[in-house]
Design a protein that fits this description.
The chain has eleven helices and five strands. It is mainly alpha-helical and about 300 residues long. Strand 2 and strand 3 form a beta hairpin.
Length: about 300
């Protein structure tokens, strides 16, 4: 377990409550766990998720009907959460929009740039904050609630609204005082503590290090014959291991695979056509066009459908 970040059990327990609580969504109708559920191996079983405003869970989740039907689906596939607490993880999201970096003085290069608050423990804590600001994921449509209205003005302005929601619930306030040494009163709780609690839970909960593959790596225990043939092919003629390497079976790099589109994906407002250019949307470098982050293959048998667009 030394390869994984350390987590505080009290913070992780608090993070679990928050992870499944719709209080963190603008309209209080969706939680982190809706798209990253235990019973769905930390995903949602959908090619493209049905976010804020939907009903139900997993493949049975509905976009609604009539005037209440959601405006659009989530533009990219909900990634699995397995082993994201591994110390080697330094970049997140399909396009790498969040990276460990000193560029903005807060430890990360992120969509919030210099407005991301100081004090986030790790990249998982930082990652947990951004679905809360996304209109079609958790924030809701402009005009529906104070959170999305604030985010529409500036990405970080919705976080204090959510933090006040949480800390003014007596039970939550007491848990924060108990879990964080520097918090003496619930009024001191900010989005930083919320992010750190969510990050602790995600890091502690989804760890997969006990597969037959781990046994083979650790002590040379033979794989079943079909799996051994697959291993030789994976790291040999098929060259899968060129990109899917290391302890998480990912190089954490970005590659253009020509994966067919399933919906327009995450588009840029100034683009003349609806298209998801992937990594280029973050770097503005032409050589990054249509490159997407190599996904980890840990527990891949349980996390279909695959690809940044679930195609």
């Amino acid at each position: 377990m030394e390869d994984f970040i350390d987590t505080d059990p009290a913070q992780a327990r608090l993070g679990q409550l928050l992870f499944y609580d719709p209080i963190l969504s603008g309209n209080r109708n969706i939680s982190c766990g809706t798209c990253h559920h235990h019973s769905l191996s930390s995903g949602d079983g959908l090619s493209l998720g049905i976010g804020e405003g939907g009903e139900g869970l997993g493949p049975k989740r509905s976009p609604g009907t009539g005037a209440d039907m959601i405006r659009k689906r989530i533009p990219r596939n909900a990634p699995a959460l397995w082993n994201l607490g591994h110390r080697s993880v330094r970049v997140m999201f399909h396009d790498g929009q969040l990276e460990v970096s000193d560029q903005f003085g807060n430890g990360f290069d992120s969509p919030a740039e210099e407005w991301l608050p100081q004090g986030l423990d790790n990249i998982l804590a930082a990652q947990a904050l951004f679905p809360l600001t996304a209109q079609f994921e958790m924030a809701g449509n402009v005009g529906e609630n104070a959170v999305t209205g604030a985010v529409h003005d500036r990405i970080d302005l919705g976080w204090p609204v959510l933090a006040k929601r949480v800390r003014t619930i007596p039970e939550y306030g007491a848990l924060f005082v108990e879990a964080f040494d520097h918090i003496d009163h619930p009024s001191e709780v900010t989005i930083v503590e919320i992010g750190n609690a969510l990050g602790a839970f995600i890091a502690a909960e989804w760890i997969s290090i006990d597969s037959p593959w781990d046994d083979w790596l650790r002590d040379g225990r033979p794989l079943p014959a079909p799996a051994e043939r697959g291993r030789q092919l994976f790291f040999g003629k098929a060259r899968c291991g060129t990109c899917h390497s290391g302890p998480l079976l990912t190089d954490q790099g970005f590659h253009a695979l020509g994966l067919p589109a399933f919906g327009p994906g995450r588009t840029r407002v100034f683009d003349p056509m609806p298209r998801d250019v992937g990594r280029m949307g973050e770097t503005d470098l032409l050589e990054d066009a249509y490159r997407f982050r190599t996904p980890s293959l840990r527990n891949v048998a349980l996390t279909a459908p695959y690809g940044h667009n679930g195609a």
